[in-house]
Amino acid sequence: MIIDHDVIILGTGLAGLRAAVEIARKSDDGVNMAIVSKVQLMRSHSVCAEGGTRLYFARRKGTV
Ligand SMILES: Cc1cc2nc3c(=O)[nH]c(=O)nc-3n(C[C@H](O)[C@H](O)[C@H](O)COP(=O)(O)OP(=O)(O)OC[C@H]3O[C@@H](n4cnc5c(N)ncnc54)[C@H](O)[C@@H]3O)c2cc1C
Questions:
Q1: Distance 55 CA to ligand 1 centre (A)
Q2: Which residue CA neighbors atom 26 of ligand 1 most closely?
Q3: Ligand 1 geometric centre to CA of 44 (Å)
Q4: pLDDT digits (tens, 9 = 90+) for 16-35
Q5: DSSP per-residue string spanning 40-64
Q6: Which are the contacts of 9, defined by CB distance < 8 A and separation ≥ 6?
Q7: Pocket around ligand 1: residues whose beta carbon is below 6 Å from it?
Q8: How many CB atoms within 10 Å of residue 12?
Q9: Which of 5, 25, 57, 62 stands 20 to 30 A from 31 (CA)?
Q10: What is this structure's pTM?
């Protein structure tokens, strides 16, 4: 069986998921996308990141 995609993203950490969101947004959901991960979704290193991501969300809320 051959599966076709316009875009294949390797990795379901913050980088991969952010890329997927941006591609979907810019293409108005017009891109057939696959996201592939070596490890289970909730096992990427991004799950461990607290400080950097917390700062990002705090800035968006205007609390920093
Ligand atoms: C214990 C720990 C604590 C941390 N704490 C912080 C913190 O407090 N603040 C902070 O800013 N940062 C922190 N970091 C760093 C932060 O987690 C990373 O910089 C960030 O998550 C990287 O995101 P990423 O999407 O590039 O990679 P990752 O989240 O590592 O995702 C990589 C993805 O690629 C996939 N992948 C890898 N190889 C393959 C392959 N051959 N084929 C298919 N898929 C593949 C993996 O399965 C995974 O889904 C921490 C990291 C660790 C390990």
A1: 17
A2: 15
A3: 5
A4: 999 999 999 999 999 999 99
A5: -GGGSGGGG--HHHHHHHHHHHT--
A6: 16, 19, 20, 23, 33, 34, 35, 36
A7: 10-16, 36-39, 44-46, 48-52
A8: 20
A9: 57
A10: 0.88
